[in-house]
Each structure stands twice: as C-alpha cells, then as structure tokens.
C-alpha cells in the first residue's frame, strides 16, 4: 500500500484515505466530540445514512436516542450525515417495501444547480442568490399562497450552497409523490399561461394572494405606467405589439369607453383596478401583453427548488448540526425572521475551528467573502484561518501542509 495513505476503520471495514482526507477526518472528529447535536422528531422512526471518509454511502441504519447518536458520530466520524424525511415502523430494513412507511415531511431543497448563471458566480454570490429564492419560497408561496403557518416551517442552511425547508404539518405527512409534485410545480410556476390565468380570473370574485395576485398586480402596474407615459413600459409594449402605429392605437384605445355591467367606463380605468373584472373586457392586444407579462412574473417570483427532493417520499436529508463534507460548514437552523441577516460564511462556521491557523497550498486562485473578510489569494502556500483551510481542502482547491 502507498505509504502516503492511511487506514481508518469504518464499521469494521478497512478504508485507505490520503493525508488530506485523514486530516479532515481528524478535524471532523474534533468537531463531533464537542458539538451539541440535536435529534429530529421521532429519531427512532428515521432511517440513518452516512458517507464515511474514503468510502461509499452506508444507509438503512437506525438510532434510538441522543446518546446513541453521539456515540455513533464519534465512532463513525461521517463526512456526510443524513436522516430520512420519512417515518418508518422498521427504518433499518434494507427494502423500502419492508420499512413500513408511515408518512414524510414535505421538503424543499434550494441549491445553485438550478440558478441561472450560477456557474459564473463566486461561492458567496451563489449563497446570496439562493437566499433570494428561499425567501420567495417561504414568504410568497408557502405562507402567502399555500397558507402554512410559521410554526409549521423549519429552515436550515444546508452546509453547502443553499437551504433546506421542512414542513411539519398533518396536511402533508400522508401526501404521495404526485401531490408533492403538484406543489413543486406550483412553486416553480409550471403551467402558468395566459389561457389558464384568464380562466381562473374569470371564475374568481376576489384575489387572495398567490400567482393570480402577482400577475394581476404586474398587469395593473403596466397600465398605470403606460397611462403615465413611462418609457420602460412603452418599450415593453412596443416589443409585444410590434410597431409604433399599433402601440399608438393601443394607447388611444385606453381612453375609449367599455361596458361593465350596466355602466360605461374608460378602458384604462378598468385595466388599472386590481381584481378579476378587467379580464372580461380584454381585446387581443391586452391578451398579447398579458401573455408576455406572465413569464416575466414567473421568472421574478418563482423559486428554483430541486423537484426530485420534494417529490421523493423516502428522501434522506442532512442531519442538523452535522458538517457538510464538501465545505466543513455546519448544517444550522435559521429562524425565519433572521434569514435576511443570516450569512452562511460567517454564521455556519463551527466555533471549534475559530481562532486557529492552518497552512495550506492553494491550487487555484481563491476569491470570496469568508468570515466577513474579502479574500483574494493566489495559488501557492498560505497560512489561513482554520475554517477557511478546511473549506478549501474540502472543496479540493487546496492541500494541507
């Protein structure tokens, strides 16, 4: 065996790991020996899974209580540590059909994978962008549109590039994958088009939030802006209607009268009032503008969640306060009213590592904001804060020396 590799024992199986992995494992072990892990609800009904250092994933385990959990992580020292979002009668059984599924939380995973342009962003910029999608998910969709209470929503920084949102509610535990997919599609704005929107609005007597209100508000704002001669609104209308003659005719048409029940109103007075009434008097030009507004609203307000995570009723999710094996950051809970000010590269740094230095050799340039410092490091040898060293080595950007 190569002399530069070390051996660890994972569940009585010898696993070779390289020096960087061995040192990372040492730091992870130090963290787990001192951190205060917390257990998810009904721990004994959850399947436990983990990825050890230098070995493939292990799953179909179970733990009964907090003491067993502490002993387990100190013995195994997982690089990644998971529990099932589902509850089972027999979580340790290897066949899903033998586990005895009892229900599952509703989970949303927000990561950079589906964020447009993420491949060109720095790590800290990715985290900032994902936070915007997380805020939209929670406040615009889960609470406003779907009516979940704050007490039913738990939020965690994933330790990686995003957030996990858990819904604890009797309304969701028994949902099958198809029902969960409908929720995921709704949040992502799937299937929202002019025809469906008009049909929903014409049968509505009032608006109560959600996509209908968001689109209606944007449509109303557009007509206020057109009436005020706003240049941006005019350019948008021109791009939809095709030429300036058609645009001028459309603007003039807003001054014309239209029948609303037994009364006659100017079209602009109807089109600038929130609510469903305007959608009964729309002409083809209105419909074309609405059809162009809808995708803009979806892009602005949709939340890019990982749909397979939401629809999977057997999903494993990262354990609270565990370390993420690709960053060394902790999976930490975030209070909803603290999300705006939460900074993962400051607030998810394990205290065990703070105030210590470590020598590393960077293979690539490193530019990011970390622990409130703007970093710009060239390849080569550096002495850096230990949390940054663990992050860089975990990301395979550097080696310890």
Q: What does this protein structure show overall?
A:
With 401 residues, the chain is of the alpha+beta class. It folds into 3 domains: 6-185 and 306-353, DNA primase, PRIM domain (Alpha-Beta Complex); 194-301, no CATH class; 355-401, DNA packaging chaperone protein FI, C-terminal beta-strand domain (Ribosomal Protein L9, domain 1, 3-Layer(aba) Sandwich). The protein is 39% helix and 20% strand. The chain is built from 14 helices and 18 strands. The protein has helices at 19-34, 66-76, 96-99, 123-145, 177-188, 194-203, 210-227, 231-241, 244-253, 267-271, 284-301, 307-311, 344-347, 386-394; strands at 6-10, 13-17, 48-51, 58-61, 80-84, 86-88, 101-104, 106-110, 153-157, 163-167, 257-260, 263-266, 316-318, 357-362, 366-370, 373-377, 380-385, 398-400. The strands form 7 sheets. The chain has a 4-stranded antiparallel β-sheet with strand order 4-3-5-13, with no helix packed on it. Strand 11 (257-260) and strand 12 (263-266) form a beta hairpin. Helix 7 packs across helix 8 and helix 7 crosses helix 11 (284-301). It is elongated, with a radius of gyration of 27 Å. Mean pLDDT is 91; it is low at 1-10.
């Amino acid at each position: 065996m190569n002399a530069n590799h070390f051996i660890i024992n994972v569940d009585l199986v010898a696993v070779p790991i390289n020096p960087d992995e061995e040192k990372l494992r040492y730091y992870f072990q130090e963290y787990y020996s001192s951190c205060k892990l917390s257990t998810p609800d009904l721990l004994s009904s959850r399947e436990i899974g983990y990825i050890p250092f230098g070995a493939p994933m292990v799953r179909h385990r179970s733990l009964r209580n907090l003491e067993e959990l502490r002993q387990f992580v100190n013995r195994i020292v997982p690089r990644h540590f998971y529990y099932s979002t589902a509850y089972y009668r027999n979580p340790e059984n290897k066949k899903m059909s033998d586990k005895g599924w009892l229900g599952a939380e509703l989970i949303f995973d927000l990561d950079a994978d589906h964020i447009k342009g993420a491949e060109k962003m720095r790590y800290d910029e990715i985290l900032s962008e994902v936070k915007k999608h997380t805020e939209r998910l929670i406040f615009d969709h889960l609470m406003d549109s779907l009516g979940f209470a704050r007490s039913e929503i738990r939020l965690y920084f994933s330790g990686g590039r995003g957030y996990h949102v858990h819904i604890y509610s009797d309304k969701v535990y028994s949902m099958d994958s198809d029902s969960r997919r409908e929720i995921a599609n709704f949040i992502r704005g799937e299937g929202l088009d002019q025809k469906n929107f008009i049909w929903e609005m014409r049968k509505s007597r009032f608006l109560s939030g959600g996509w209908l209100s968001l689109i209606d508000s944007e449509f109303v704002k557009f007509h206020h802006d057109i009436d005020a001669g706003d240049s941006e609104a005019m350019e948008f209308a021109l791009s939809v209607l095709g030429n300036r003659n058609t645009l001028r005719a459309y603007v003039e048409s807003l001054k014309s009268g239209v029948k609303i029940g037994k009364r006659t109103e100017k079209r602009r007075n109807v089109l600038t009032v929130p609510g469903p009434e305007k959608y009964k008097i729309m002409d083809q030009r209105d419909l074309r503008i609405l059809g162009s507004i809808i995708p803009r609203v979806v892009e602005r307000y949709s939340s890019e969640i990982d749909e397979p995570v939401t629809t999977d009723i057997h999903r494993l999710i990262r354990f609270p306060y565990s370390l993420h094996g690709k960053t060394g950051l902790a999976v930490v809970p975030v209070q909803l009213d603290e999300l705006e000010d939460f900074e993962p590269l400051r607030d998810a740094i394990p205290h065990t590592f703070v105030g210590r230095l470590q020598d590393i050799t960077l293979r690539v340039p490193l530019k990011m904001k970390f622990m409130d410092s703007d970093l710009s490091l060239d390849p080569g040898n550096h002495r850096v804060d230990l949390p940054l060293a663990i992050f860089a080595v975990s990301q395979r950007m550097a080696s310890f020396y």
